[in-house]
Amino acid sequence: MKKCKRCGVPMEGFMYKWVAAKLFGVKPSGKNADLCNKCEDKPEKTWGCCK
User: CB within 8 A of 42, min separation 6: which ones?
Assistant: First the structure.
């Protein structure tokens, strides 16, 4: 199952179609296929304590 590399939200399958996409408006990023649209513009250093 494909997930966002930063936040871990599913980007395919049942959870994506019924929860992430419809309720939260999450979709694959146009800039980077490994990220969701919510994470694409956020700086990487704000994710996690040890990155």
Answer: 6
Which token pair is 46?
């704000």
> Which pair of tokens denotes residue 30?
């146009």
> Whole-prediction pTM value?
0.71
Torsions phi, psi for 21 (to 5 deg): -75, -50
Per-residue pLDDT band for 49 (boundaries 50, 70, 90) equals very low
Reduce the secondary structure of 1-51 to three states and give it as a string. Answer: CCECCCCCCECCCHHHHHHHHHHHCCCECCCCCCCECCCCCCCHHHCCCCC
Cα–Cα distance between 1 and 31 in angstroms, integer?
20
